[in-house]
């Protein structure tokens, strides 16, 4: 397997830079930071004057197909309200075909659109209004049936992009096609039910001759019915025994919702007897649904967001940080599909201490000083490795010297001076031993002259050491 190249590379994505308007200003959007992708959008609204009711619409361009849900209503004018998006880089044809079908084989009518003639629309341009188009049968004749639709070329900044069915889901069939839509995940707002019991009046005890009564209020919710109902029960406590005096039911759909910490008006609610629905008194309550609080879904020590749920309670922003994710490459395959490795990756951007704490912080000054303290006697693997490298560097000089000396001895690096040798030196080198020349000639040879010269030089040096004149 070839190694991945993680070196720094220059990229030139085609990102938007805003659009100019007649006034000279630039209109920007969130998608200006990401690479622009072009899609062929088609919105199927409804149809009319069809011979059958149990129909569906199939959109085809090349080998990519999109299909609406089958109309099961007896209405002769079915409504679909579905959007399809085809990536323009993967279009395999020049004609977009919209067909009204009863089943896979039987086609009621169809209409065609040339891709080159489809208009382009990029926000903030106004959306294209759907129009009625006549359907043609297999022979190319119009029979009266019509379909209302709109088709345009757009980008991922289009408003219909999140709800569109994309061409990447062409191989998905059955009920799984629903999960192939692009999704936008929003954090749900949780509402707290706050009940403040103030006082009660005109309570009717179960036994008229009882005195020193002790009252308490209990509340609970019932989720078995379609509409949540809050039950407030006022009980009479005698010792460890509790008896219900009355009950009131409050529909949560009628409870005031608030996000600001302002006061909530208190209201009186009638209490009914349990069993006979008779009057049992009144209770004074302050009930509200508070949605301005923040619900922590993380550990408090590592939470990255402490803002309230309501935007009205947020502190004013001093700036906006925009991040655009362009692309990713060199990802390791995590699973196998059709005999080849694939990776279903996604990118998550978080800002806060929870994710900044995962990076390695710089070393503090005290840590650096301790690491550089050579007088410390505590064993350290780092220092052991450093000392080992020093020893290896010291002995490397001897090893290099030995290798050089061995190469000289084995004549691997000769220094012969053969190119500058004199004739007398060559004659003396090739003379045998004992010399075949006369003694007088030997004394006059170059070697003998050099030895005499060396002897004289040594005598002169001895005189200098003795402070004598040579």
Radius of gyration: 47 Å
What is the number of helices? 6
Q: Per DSSP, what share of the residues sits in E-state strands of 2 or more residues?
A: 25-35%
CATH superfamily of the domain at 19-180: C2 domain
From the spread of the alpha carbons, the general shape counts as: flat
CATH secondary-structure class of the domain at 19-180: Mainly Beta
Helix and strand pattern: EEEEEEEEEEEEEEEEEEEEHHHHHH
Mean residue pLDDT: 76
Q: Kindly report the oligomeric state of this protein.
A: single chain
Biggest pleated sheet: 5 strands, mixed
Q: In which range does the helix fraction lie?
A: 10-25%
Q: Widest sheet: strand order?
A: 9-10-3-6-11
| Model regions low in confidence, pLDDT < 50 over at least 5 residues | 174-179, 224-228
Number of strands: 20
Helix/strand-derived category reads: alpha+beta
Distance between the termini: 81 Å
Architecture of the domain at 19-180, CATH level 2?
Sandwich
CATH topology of the domain at 19-180: Immunoglobulin-like
């Amino acid at each position: 397997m070839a190694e991945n190249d993680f070196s720094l590379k220059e990229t030139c994505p085609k990102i938007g830079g805003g659009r100019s308007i007649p006034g000279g200003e630039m209109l920007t959007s969130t998608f200006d930071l990401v690479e622009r992708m072009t899609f062929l959008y088609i919105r199927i609204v409804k149809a009319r004057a069809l011979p059958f009711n149990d129909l569906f619409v199939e959109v085809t361009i090349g080998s990519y197909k999109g299909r609406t849900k089958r109309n099961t209503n007896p209405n002769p004018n079915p409504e679909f309200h579905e959007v399809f998006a085809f990536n323009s880089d993967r279009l395999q044809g020049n004609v977009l075909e919209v067909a009204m079908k009863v089943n896979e084989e039987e086609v009621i009518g169809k209409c065609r659109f040339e891709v080159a003639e489809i208009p382009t629309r990029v926000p903030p341009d106004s959306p294209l209004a759907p129009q009625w188009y006549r359907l043609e049968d297999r022979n190319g004749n119009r029979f009266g049936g019509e379909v209302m639709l709109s088709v345009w070329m757009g980008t991922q900044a289009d408003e219909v992009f999140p709800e569109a069915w994309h061409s990447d889901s062409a191989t998905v069939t059955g009920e799984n096609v629903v999960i192939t839509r692009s999704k936008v995940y929003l954090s749900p707002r949780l509402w707290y039910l706050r009940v403040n019991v103030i006082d009660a009046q005109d309570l009717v005890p179960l036994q008229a001759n009882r005195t020193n009564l002790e009252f308490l209020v209990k509340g609970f919710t019932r989720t078995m019915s379609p509409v949540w109902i809050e039950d407030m029960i006022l009980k009479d406590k005698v010792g460890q025994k509790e008896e219900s005096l009355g009950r009131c039911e409050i529909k949560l759909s009628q409870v005031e919702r608030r996000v600001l910490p302002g006061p909530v008006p208190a209201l009186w609610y009638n209490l009914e007897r349990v069993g006979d629905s008779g009057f049992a008194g009144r209770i004074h309550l302050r009930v509200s649904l508070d949605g301005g609080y923040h619900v922590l879904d993380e550990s408090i020590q590592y939470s990255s967001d402490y803002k309230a749920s309501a935007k009205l309670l947020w502190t004013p922003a001093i700036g906006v940080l925009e991040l655009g994710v362009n692309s990713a490459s060199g990802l390791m395959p995590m699973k196998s599909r059709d005999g080849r490795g694939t990776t279903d990756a996604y990118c998550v951007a978080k800002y806060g201490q929870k994710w900044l704490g995962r990076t390695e912080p710089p070393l503090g000054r005290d840590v650096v000083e301790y690491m550089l303290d050579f007088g410390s006697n505590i064993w350290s693997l780092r220092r052991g490795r450093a000392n080992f490298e020093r020893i290896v560097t010291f002995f490397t000089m001897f090893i290099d010297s030995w290798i050089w000396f061995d190469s000289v001895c084995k004549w691997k690096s000769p220094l012969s001076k053969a190119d500058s040798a004199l004739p007398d030196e060559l004659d003396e080198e090739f003379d045998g031993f004992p010399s075949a020349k006369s003694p007088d000639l030997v004394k006059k040879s170059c070697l003998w002259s050099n030895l005499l010269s060396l002897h004289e030089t040594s005598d002169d040096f001895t005189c200098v050491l003795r402070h004598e004149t040579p």
